[in-house]
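Q: Could you fold this chain for me?
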Amino acid sequence: MRTQTLTDVTLKTLHNYQTAATQAVAAYHAGGQRLVGLVNGTLQARLYPQTARFAPRATERMNALRGNVSGSVVKGMDQAAERTSQAIERGAEAAAAGLTKVAGLATELGNPYVAGGLDAAARLSLPAAKLALAVSGKVAEGATTLATAAGAHPVKKAARKVATAAKRAHKSVKAAVPKARKTARAAA
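A: Sure. Below is the predicted structure, expressed as structure tokens.
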């Protein structure tokens, strides 16, 4: 079994938050689509039949206007969701690349004192990073549940993977906290 590093845990946490953000966008998009559909359906089923008896031309014009407005709203939501998803992906890629670059630079340090200090800081930070990973897993799980409730139909396999990773990270945090305290006492 490979020992987890601070970089690995941080990258997994970043991925969980990327998943959560993507699922939140999917929930927004699906919820907006449903809302527009409900408003249109209510107008067509309840209001227009009533007004058509008294003012058929006005009802016809209102129906055309409603179609135009609905189309514009749906198009705007589609564009907003698409652009937001692209921004999330680009941001996550940039953050992961930066983190990987910094981790690579830290491993190439020639000064043993600085390298030892960074290694000790990473070991002491690892339990908190694992806790953050567990939290991010729960956030991603919640966002996936929200997206499912909104009717976005997120990828189930990815959601199960995130949930399993979160549970595993939570267990390792429980085990790592006493060890970190012991290490901190020994260092002091």
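A (continued): DSSP finds four helices and no strands in the chain.
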